[in-house]
Task: structure prediction
Amino acid sequence: MNELWYKFKFAVQDDIEQITAKRKTQNAADVLNETIKEAEQHTKAVGKLLERQRILRDEVTKELLETEQLTEKRTEQLSLAEATGDEALINYAKDEAEAYSQRRDELRSLEVDTTESMIALERRFESMKHKVKDMQVRRLKLMGEENAKRANSRMDRIFSADLEPSSDEPANGAFAKDGDIASMRRRLDDLTAEEATIEKIV
Result:
């Protein structure tokens, strides 16, 4: 009876250790997977914002080119108006030239700021993508470490098990170590044989 109890205890202990190890691995993996998933979502969102920034910069550049052309045109018109000597026309042409000139300067400044901002965002975006990749590598490393740990744990159980009969084994076939796997198996076989003999007699 003791041999059966120890066999059952050994099996239950092994199952509990496997479940505990699996739960710890799942918890660590789940946390890391959730973090990676969230980081990937943020990366995707930032990528869309960065694309909008590029479109905005292109629109600013396009508007700047048009304004520079119109500024040049208004400056030429101002020269023509001054040649006529018409004060009203001169004043109107001057106001137009100044308005376009101011808009051109603002757009030039905006283009510089937008470009610098876009470059800074692109650099941070690349760093962000590298960070996500590093996290994915970390996940693979964690999975490898946990798999190796579980494999070593199982092998350690086999290597540490005493499968050889004890030297002071009693002559009647009883074994000294109740927890010994080999002895428990042989005793179970003996019990099975005895049970079969009893059934035949009955």
Notes: DSSP finds three helices and no strands in the chain. Residues 171-178 have pLDDT under 50 and may be disordered. The radius of gyration is 42 Å. Helices lie at 2-84, 87-160, 181-201.
